[in-house]
What we know:
Bound molecules: 1-O-phosphono-beta-D-fructopyranose
Shape: globular
Distance between the termini: 24 Å
Helix content: 40-55%
Oligomer: single chain
Amino acid sequence: MNSAADGQQATFREIYNQAIASEQTVSRHQDRLTQFEKLLPLDSYTDIILTGCGSSYNLARCVAFAWTLLLERPVSGIAASELMNFPERYLSAGSRPLVIAISRTGGTTEVLLAVERLRADYGGAALAVTCQANSPIGNICDEEMAFDECLEESIVMTQAFTSMLLGLYLLGDGAAKGSYNSQLAAAPNLIGRNLACSEAIVRPLAENPGVNQFFFLGSGPMKGLADECALKMTEMALAVAAGYRLLEFRHGPKAALNAESLTVLFPTAPEDPHLETLLGEIGETGSKNLIVGRRVGDKMPTDSKRVLSLGFDDNLPDFFRPVLYAHIGHLLAYFRAQALNINPDCPRHLARTVLLNR
Ligand code: F1P
């Protein structure tokens, strides 16, 4: 049964609110683009860097991949802790960067320190992307863009990831030619449809007492998403989880797979020719698989009992698809936490009191 109607916890409500919050993000896009235009032209910057910590860093990498293609120039997603300590690794002397500092709370220490360091050492300009105006990070940037439509109560970021991701995709597209505007504006509807059907597939995997480790595989535009899913699982359900690039996984990490693993794959079109080989190797270990997001008509391996597939019938390019799939990681982590009697709203503060029945 889909439990969307009876969830009481903030995390649950926030996961299931992501289509609605994203609709508001779409409707506020023009105002945000006008605000962003104060920092243009982009040609006046030597570098465009998105930064953040944790989920916000994963979000930064998803956005950086898409903006690189949209703006036809390199855009980087770099952890704030790297920028605050080793800026010279990422910027050459004389650089004039545009720094986009992402932080749901607007107060994360490393993000603050990274912005301060870059402003002091390089100048340039800084935009804060937060969920609440007048934040400490907003106060040291030239502009603050507050996504207050997705402000969250839960410690763990869920709907805010999706909304800010969509908002930043729209912004990058707006600063380019705006060619994807209508496709991106349709994303909330797709997210709502996906949310309505994903729980039935994801929940039994999350609650399966025979699964005790989680691997999320995604490359290119999906790497930030894969890492975000692993982070959700660890943060929310205190579980062993890791994100890897799809084909990199073959070279060492797959050795950890066994019959108690769940491997979630987010393949992209260029990886299609190699997918069956990878799935064969994963299948030999006994790991359960979930393949997310194959387009209708794609060649799907159907011969393995361990392959479950979620299909999403849409035409969005791969580099925007993390916005459609983020909820998969949210639901897996949420139901895993529930099965372990961990409060997903505040997981780090509670002891694990009930173990899975194994
Ligand atoms: C950063 C962050 C979150 C993460 C965790 C700890 O927060 O790393 O992304 O989920 O709860 O904090 P913020 O800078 O986005 O507020």
